[in-house]
Amino acid sequence: MSDITKDPAMTDATSSDNADTQPKPVPPVSFLAQLWPYLSRYKKVMTGAATALIFTSLITLALGQGVRLVIDDGILSQSMTALNQMLGLVLILVVAMAIGTFVRFYLVTWLGERVSADLRNDVFSHLVRMHPSYFEENQSGEIMSRLTTDTTLLQSIIGSSLSFALRNALTVTGGLIMLFVTNLKLTAVVMLGVPAVLVPAILLGRKVRTLSRQSQDSVADVGSYAGEVIRQVKTVQSYSREQFEINAFSAEVNRAFEVAKKRIRQRSLLLGLVIMLAFTAIAAMVWVGGYDVMTGRMSGGELAAFVFYALMVAFGVAGVSEVYGEIQRAAGATERLMELLAEPSLIKDPDQAQSIDSSVSEHLRFESVRFFYPSRPDRAALNDLNLVVKRGETVALVGPSGAGKSTLFELILRFYDPQKGRILMDGADISELALEDLRRPMALVPQQPVLFSNNVWYNIRYGRPDATDDEVIAAARAAHAYEFIMDLPQGFDSDLGENGVRLSGGQKQRIVIARAILNDPDILLLDEATSALDAESEYQVQQALNELMKNRTTLIIAHRLATVLGADRTVVLHEGELVAEGTHRSLLASSPLYKRLADLQFASDNHADGQTMQPVADVKDD
Ligand SMILES: Nc1ncnc2c1ncn2[C@@H]1O[C@H](COP(=O)(O)OP(=O)(O)OP(=O)(O)O)[C@@H](O)[C@H]1O
User: Fold this and answer.
1) What does UniProt give as the signal peptide span (predicted)?
2) Do the domains 447-520 and 356-441+524-535+554-622 match in fold?
3) Architecture of the 447-520 domain
4) 380 Cα–ligand 1 center, Å
5) What percent of the chain has pLDDT over 90?
């Protein structure tokens, strides 16, 4: 793993993100527009929340009048009865506000949680259906950060900051109206203060938004870096690179901190500035108002009510500007989530799917297939490949490393579409089949067995969740896995750990083979990896494979030539081209490349075992 600050891919990604984060004059309301499809599902909740919001704001405004009455009619007129009555009124208002606040807080927070949960679900279901090359082009840590950090941010914004902002906006508007009604001259003083507060707030808010997107990106970088190191911890430790990784990680963390520092500096500045300006305006107002009370042009209660409203407006404006930055962050997060959701999957179901005709004797056909991986547009991984596989036939694929054998599987499963030519299954172009119809009859046994961190039942049942326990056990027996599974601490209920860390290589493979057997596929795609196993496990796995291959069309990537001896036909690939085809014997004569591979393999086998290799399966001849 290279130092990520020097990794060109990473630098590229970061710089292109930076290009994205140039200040865009996106008004924060646009994020609400983007979120509208999610919010509009809960119109009733929104209406309830809005009603509670308006209700509590009106009561807050009424409290100002309460204050005036308590002072003028109660305190200043020295009437105890009036004071009691007025205070009683204020208390009723306070209780009503408490109830309104409860309803508002509950509904708004509910909305935030619900919308972010829906978004999380949508993002995940979108990702799971995405074409696999998307995950080669995008760092998994960054994708995860979209799914967790960005949605969490929205949850808190919708659930609190947004309602806070709306509430403040309402009280500011109402407060201003009440100010105008109470005293025009004083209001003019307040009005001078408002633009002085708002203009710098908006300008600074924009900067905060840009910085916050950068800040989230760098947190995502930190996450993906840590994720990779943790997954590869054994390699890191075996090469004693712990200190190097700690330093590299720390550099990443500091980079994220530097960006965050810039952001918080701007936010603190914003907050300080707003508070200073707001209180200066209030001080000026109290001075003017105090003068009016002294000269008898205004009552004490009126001034108190006025100060109450003015404070309400000032805190309201300060509050709005404070969460303005947050809302801008939410706008950034929403933009990124929507970008992700708008990214189309390049591999999807056709509009009109063809049905499968399983009576066709030609099971698979490659017609002049040429394919480049998206990240390697200069080099064809498969070039002008023609191949026909009949129903029930076993075809072995051999060739040097990088010849394109695994690529062939990826194309059959339609993880990628070829740039030229077409692939047919049962006579139908696979791009015209529903993805499920195409993939259901296939089972892939990859070179590296893939297991989920769950128990044996779950892992074997993965392709057929409805299989009965007896069927799972039968599949495990057929895969020669039953004995070792029963030896596990909890048998089939044993948890296998992340990617099956608690099993040996050969055991993992046999679980994966049991999964394929249970799936009962028509087409078996085997990336044989017996070379990594000892003789005993290899024998077990080979037995399991022989069981699995019975009566199915099988394409098998043969790393060991023992396998090809049992195949109906062997195809030799070299640099993405099909260079020879035939049986073991005919290829020994016709293909120099095959002969060389065979010589090397059998020579090393003889050397290793001190005897001639015995193929497990029967030798097929011309
Ligand atoms: N995801 C990918 N993106 C870009 N290039 C790839 C990708 N996967 C494979 N390649 C390239 O495509 C070519 C064919 O690879 P492929 O994995 O099909 O070879 P292979 O014959 O299966 O090799 P091996 O026997 O070593 O597994 C190689 O040059 C490889 O570098």
Assistant:
1) none
2) yes
3) 3-Layer(aba) Sandwich (3.40)
4) 10
5) 25
| Level-2 CATH architecture, domain 29-342 | Up-down Bundle (1.20)
Say yes or no: CB of residue 404 within 6 Å of ligand 1.
Answer: yes
User: Does residue 136 have its Cβ closer than 6 Å to ligand 1?
Assistant: yes
Architecture of domain 356-441+524-535+554-622: 3-Layer(aba) Sandwich (3.40)
Contact by Cβ (8 Å): 576, 383: yes
Gap between the Cα atoms of 18 and 448, Å rounded: 37
373: Cβ below 6 Å to ligand 1? yes
Token pair of 69 as six digits = 């009455």
Q: What is the ipTM of this complex?
A: 0.94
Tens of pLDDT, residue by residue over 193-240, are: 667 766 776 777 677 767 777 777 777 777 778 888 888 888 888 888
Q: Is 376 in the pocket of ligand 1 (CB under 6 A)?
A: yes
> What's the rounded Cα separation, in Å, for the pair 501 and 495?
10
Question: Ligand 1: does its nearest atom lie under 6 Å from the Cβ of 525?
Answer: no
Looking up tokens 């100002």 gives 64
* Residue owning the nearest CA to atom 19 of ligand 1: 402
Q: Which of 366, 407, 416 to mutate to test the pocket of ligand 1 (most atoms within 8 A of CB)?
A: 407
The DSSP-derived string for 108-129 is HHHHHHHHHHHHHHHHHHHHHT
Ligand 1 atom nearest to 399, measured from its CA: 21
Quick one: which of 28, 32, 57, 211 has its CA closest to 112? Answer: 32
Choose one of 369, 382, 398, 406 to mutate for the ligand 1 pocket test, by most ligand atoms within 8 angstroms of C-beta: 406
- The SS3 assignment for 3 reads coil
Lookup: tokens for 475: 């599949």
Single-letter amino acid code for the residue at 134: Y
Strands 553-557 and 523-527: parallel
**What is the biggest distance separating any 2 CA atoms in the chain, rounded to whole angstroms?**
119
Positive or negative, the CA dihedral 499, 503, 504, 505 is negative
Query: Which residue has the least CA distance to atom 4 on ligand 1?
Result: 373
Give the residue, out of 131, 369, 405, 556, with the most ligand 1 atoms within 8 A of its beta carbon, to mutate for a pocket test: 405
Q: Establish whether residue 406 lines the binding site of ligand 1, counting it when its CB lies within 6 angstroms of any ligand atom.
A: yes
* Residue-by-residue DSSP string for 195-260: HHHHHHHHHHHHHHHHHHHHHHHHHHHHHHHHHHHHHTHHHHHHTT-HHHHHHHHHHHHHHHHHHH
Beta carbon of 461 within 6 Å of any ligand 1 atom: no
Question: Token pair 């128990």 is at which residue?
Answer: 455
Q: Which atom of ligand 1 is nearest to the CA of 559?
A: 25
Judging by beta carbons within 10 Å of its beta carbon (0-12, 13-18, 19+), is residue 113 exposed, middle or buried?
A: middle
d(CA 352, CA 349): 8
* Cα–Cα nearest to 40, from 102, 120, 109, 114: 114
CA of 576 to the centre of ligand 1 (A): 9
In tens, the pLDDT along 391-405 reads: 989 999 998 888 999
Query: Euclidean distance between the first and final Cα of the chain, in Å?
Result: 49
CB 132 within 8 A of CB 415: yes
| 27 — pLDDT class (breaks 50, 70, 90) | low
Q: Residue ranges per domain, the chain?
A: 29-342, 356-441+524-535+554-622, 447-520
